[in-house]
Amino acid sequence: MYVVNSQEMRAIDQYTIEQIGIPAMVLMENAGRAVAEEVSLYAGERLQRIAVLVGKGNNGADGLVAARHLQEAGHKAEIIYATDPAGFVDEAAVQRDIVHNLRIPSSTYAELCVQWHSYDLIIDALLGTGSRGAPREVVAKLILEANESDLPIYAVDIPSGLDPNTGYVHDACIRATCTIALAFPKRGLEQEPGVEQAGRVSVRSIGIPQSAAEQLKVRTYRIEEPLLSDTLGLSSYRRRASNSNKGTFGHVLVAAGSRSMSGAGLLCSKAALRAGSGLVTWALPESLLDGMLGQIPEIMMRGMADEGRGDWGKISTQWILELAANKAAIVFGPGIGRFDNDTHWLRDIWEHTTCPLVLDADALNMLGTSIGLDALSRRSAPVILTPHPGEMARLCGKSIPEIQGDRIETARSFAWKFGVTLVLKGARTVVATPEGEIYINRTGNAGMATGGTGDVLAGIIAGLLAQGMSATQSAALGVYLHGSAGDRAASSRPYMASLIASDIIDQL
Ligand SMILES: NC(=O)C1=CN([C@@H]2O[C@H](COP(=O)(O)OP(=O)(O)OC[C@H]3O[C@@H](n4cnc5c(N)ncnc54)[C@H](O)[C@@H]3O)[C@@H](O)[C@H]2O)[C@H](O)CC1
Ligand SMILES: [K+]
């Protein structure tokens, strides 16, 4: 499923109308009918008194079409224009005249005090992909009153007051029961807090062929089963040849853990195994080794001389490079903690190892603060970075609100600039590839906001890389599986807050 921004949607609209030849009025009729069908589904046999809030653009015109179809279905539709409809142009003017000719009751907001209690449901057709900035004047007032009415609100295309591209929620923003996304979901519906504001999202075809999005090279996708098996070609990984052996599925090197965070290495290593890698070696500071021995019998362990410090301050590059030599993937960072020594060895690993590399947690902070990504040469083998918003803020030298303000563009431009695959974690994790593609994950839940789940994700991704998947396949499938396992873990418990990272591994 493609996800589009307003500029891509306009281009797709134009292409469909001008190159394919489907008239705008046909698209609008389909859009309005789709809205009416969704409302009728909700209404069932009950006849509804519906207030249709109409803006002056085509979003409003879609609302007028919906009003007409709902009236035809026996409901009582009343139109409330935000501004004087005399000023409408093009298709909106045509739809205005039609509802007028059908004697559907209408009024302009300025003239009246809306009796919200006389309605059962509201359709929000005020602002769509043409909205710019915070809702102004009467539009803002209508939005706030509609929310205060506590009536169910069905939003056309996007909730008015939601930024269609970033998911930013303006002070005046419709809190929708359901959003009918026309043709393709807009980016703002796929990023918090837009996800919350949109309610249930129903993506409805309005007659625009999928090929229009392909033709215009839309490169932002929702991660869903069909995408994983088809576009990402992952179905070939479902079967294992019977004459396989543990070497067939790769050997992961996990470099993780320190005295206060030794469990991170365990979680990461176990997750890599559960994700299907053949072998896992966990490299950790020697003084921690005895305490960890045998905790997970399937994992091989190697202690690194640490002068009893229990941290990575004295790591020897030679030792790590020798360990990394025959590995299929390396994951660096979970639980390694911070220390002041020079981190030249991270640069050496970046530059002298040839297998895919996953950097997580404090390895990312080293990149951001002491080495600097732009100081590193492009690496022949793929690199996957898995920052949460705080680590991303340090990597980019920005604030967390700036990162969260436009997660998709932040991730896309970073991945493109540095030639890495970036997994920007959070609700609706964003995967960005060096080629400019974006994959938005929709699995997972708030119960996963608990220590160690990031270590598990890094291990899953490394485990998939070890089996020969590309960085894009490993990152997209990795976040999808991580969230799905988290959803299964949450639904198997009385309350999702009791979920811990190990539960995710067990559910993989
Ligand atoms: N393929 C499709 O998705 C189709 C979508 N359709 C609908 O068309 C709208 C986009 O229509 P457009 O006229 O470009 O923009 P809007 O209706 O969203 O514009 C609203 C209107 O309001 C004014 N305005 C803009 N920002 C603000 C603001 N902050 N406060 C107040 N007023 C504002 C501005 O002047 C605009 O004219 C899309 O969402 C779909 O619903 C087509 O109908 C069918 C194909
Ligand atoms: K709307």
Automatic annotation (TrEMBL):
**Binding of AMP: at which residues?**
425-429, 454
Record-listed (6S)-NADPHX binding positions: 58-62, 128-134, 157, 264, 335, 388, 455
> Keywords in UniProt for this one?
ATP-binding, Isomerase, Lyase, Metal-binding, Multifunctional enzyme, NAD, NADP, Nucleotide-binding, Potassium
Task: Cite the InterPro entries for this sequence.
Answer: Carbohydrate_kinase_pred_CS, CARKD, Nnr, Ribokinase-like, YjeF_N_dom, YjeF_N_dom_sf
Per the record, what are the reactions this protein catalyses? (6S)-NADPHX + ADP = AMP + phosphate + NADPH + H(+); (6R)-NADHX = (6S)-NADHX; (6R)-NADPHX = (6S)-NADPHX; (6S)-NADHX + ADP = AMP + phosphate + NADH + H(+)
Cofactor binding: number and manner: Binds 1 potassium ion per subunit.
YjeF N-terminal domain location: 9-214
- Asked whether the keyword Nucleotide-binding is assigned, the reply is yes
Location of the YjeF C-terminal domain: 229-508
Q: Which cofactor does it need?
A: K(+); Mg(2+)
Q: Which CDD domains match?
A: YXKO-related
UniProt keyword ATP-binding, yes or no: yes
Task: Show the PANTHER family listed in the entry.
Answer: ATP-DEPENDENT (S)-NAD(P)H-HYDRATE DEHYDRATASE, ATP-DEPENDENT (S)-NAD(P)H-HYDRATE DEHYDRATASE FAMILY MEMBER
- Give the function comment from the record: Catalyzes the epimerization of the S- and R-forms of NAD(P)HX, a damaged form of NAD(P)H that is a result of enzymatic or heat-dependent hydration. This is a prerequisite for the S-specific NAD(P)H-hydrate dehydratase to allow the repair of both epimers of NAD(P)HX. Catalyzes the dehydration of the S-form of NAD(P)HX at the expense of ADP, which is converted to AMP. Together with NAD(P)HX epimerase, which catalyzes the epimerization of the S- and R-forms, the enzyme allows the repair of both epimers of NAD(P)HX, a damaged form of NAD(P)H that is a result of enzymatic or heat-dependent hydration.
Q: Return the similarity comment.
A: Belongs to the NnrD/CARKD family. In the N-terminal section; belongs to the NnrE/AIBP family.
Listed name of the protein: Bifunctional NAD(P)H-hydrate repair enzyme
What organism does the record attribute this protein to?
Answer: Paenibacillus baimaensis
